Amino acid sequence: MTSLFQWRLMRPDDIAAATAIAAEVHAAFPEDDAVYVERLALYPAGCRILERAGTAAGYCLSHPWTAGSLPALNTLLGALPAVPSTYYIHDVALLPAARGSGAAGTVVAALAAHAAANGFSSLSLVAVNGSEGFWRRQGFHVVDAPQLAAKLASYEVAARLMARPLG
Predict the structure, then answer these.
(1) How far apart are CA 41 and CA 31, in angstroms?
(2) Cβ–Cβ < 8 Å for 86, 66
(3) Would you say the C-alpha torsion 96, 75, 145, 118 has a positive or negative sign?
(4) Residues 4-32 pLDDT 10s
(5) Is residue 10 within 8 Å of 47, Cβ to Cβ?
(6) Using CA atoms, how far apart are residues 131 and 95, in angstroms rounded to an integer?
(7) 51: which strand partners?
(8) Does residue 1 have a pLDDT over 90?
(9) What is the DSSP pairing of strand 47-52 with strand 6-9?
(10) How many other C-beta atoms can be found within 10 angstroms of the C-beta atom of residue 117?
């Protein structure tokens, strides 16, 4: 039941919970704590924690970015683009107890509304870990980006750049 799980904005004291969730959910895609700290500092409106009874059960990192490109895995951005052209979902991770609750779809809808309200015409992301089907159900499609093949392969062989138009 989705009402048991609630999304809220991430705070600095949530970083340890987010990285612990990442270690469990995305063990094949490790990122340093500094990545979480930086994303939260650069764009706090795009960082969320999923809670159930006060305990973290998932997280989301997202931020403005440049369409047709993607940040490398486990890399600090330094700054957001001066003229961003897409709203990038860096990561949505849910512990097994939260899967099937509708929480992932809820945060995607919230991010789409946030992006549209801030003038973005698209969402983009890299689908990994067998998640392409989920993202397709959320309205995303695979973007043919041969120039990004090496960067995508640094995630995993099956990684796909995906986008969703807004509006």
Answers:
(1) 16
(2) yes
(3) positive
(4) 999 999 999 999 999 999 999 988 889 99
(5) yes
(6) 14
(7) 6, 56
(8) no
(9) antiparallel
(10) 9
